[in-house]
Amino acid sequence: MELIRWGADVARVEGEVAGQEGRGPTVIEVAIARSSAGARKRIRVNGVGRRAAALSATLRSVLFAPEDMLLVAGSPSLRRAAIDGLATQRSPAYGADLATYGRALAQRNRLLRAIREEGADRSQLRFWDAPLIEAGAALVAERLRSIAELAEPLRATHAEIAPDEAAASRLSVEYRSNVEYTSASVRDALARRLEATADKEIWNGSTLVGPHRDDLLFRLGDRDLADFGSRGQQRTAILAFKLAELDLLAAHDGRQPLLLLDDVFSELDPDRRGHLVRRIADLPQAFVTTTTPDDLDPTLVAASTGWRVVADGGTGATLIPGDPSDGTPP
After folding, report:
1. Fold match between 76-254 and 256-330?
2. Per-domain boundaries in the chain
3. Considering only CA atoms, which of 275, 245, 277 is closest in space to residue 258?
4. Domain at 76-254, CATH homologous superfamily
5. Short-list 80, 42, 78, 65, CA closest to 259
6. Which residues, 6+ apart, have CB-to-CB distance to 299 below 8 Å?
7. CATH architecture observed for domain 256-330
């Protein structure tokens, strides 16, 4: 809803992705409209309606936003979203499994609350256990695969950003779960854990195990960066993770993802900012936003096409071409 201009009913953006292997360009349109239920989103690819998960087949992207600065020490939901975003772009089936799991989880939680209130029978859990286990096992397996394949790009980007630190301790990401996955298949381990926690889940009225409760742990050597890392080490780890994600997606099929940087330069110190600028310079295309143009590197500004968002005298704003560092307020 926040994307819709004040006083308007619809926000719409359209972009054209260059074709590959002799194919023509692909036109992507995303529109968000106000409705009585809040907001409706419509996605079209070459005029045909598509789900958001299908967009990664046409255009992969890596987003680096201010909230990502909490990736190491913030809520586990941020880290789950990060690995889910990466896995969705690497596996076409992952988005569908994620949606299936979300629906099964919501239905199962409603049933658990009904059983707790003696409004349903415990035997009904089997109906929602099956899709929850199947989809959940697929999610965990792909998350584990993505983390394993991210390990080397993460080591390399960390060494680029902080060579002395990387020489002393390796940066890694560890998958954390309350399900033990090492001694059995992911599916069997999840099924056994759900059975073992059934009584507690009915008491709580919610599903207590599964990928929606899992987490990622950032480690520098044997240290948990969330608890024992400095602010600079945490930000180095976050930047290394984002650049490793970029490299891993590019290696997937040779296509460079689109990098989207949303007002993050003010959050980075000069050394990290400079490293990010050098990486951006090597990309075919990236979008950078900022509310403080002075935070932008002059070299980056000189090599970029600038646009400014300015008040239009009414209730909204207009995007106009121009140097973002010319001092005009955004």
Report:
1. no
2. 1-50, 76-254, 256-330
3. 245
4. RecF/RecN/SMC, N-terminal domain (1.20.1050.90)
5. 65
6. 277, 281
7. 3-Layer(aba) Sandwich (3.40)
Asked whether 190 and 137 are in contact (CB, 8 A), the reply is yes
Count Cα neighbours of 49 within 13 Å in the Cβ-side half-sphere: 2
Tokens read off for 71 = 């990736």
How far CA 121 is from CA of 146, 191, 247, in Å, comes to 39, 19, 50
Find, among 114, 60, 63, 71, the residue nearest to 261 by Cα. Answer: 63
The pairing of strands 258-262 and 61-64 is: parallel
More confident residue, 218 or 26: 218
DSSP for 244-297, written as a single string:
HHHHHHHHHHSPPPEEEEES-GGGS-HHHHHHHHHHHHTSS-EEEE-S-GGGS-
Please report, rounded to a whole number, the percentage of residues in the chain having pLDDT higher than 70.
92
The whole-number pLDDT of residue 330 equals 41
Selected residue with higher pLDDT from 150 and 26: 150
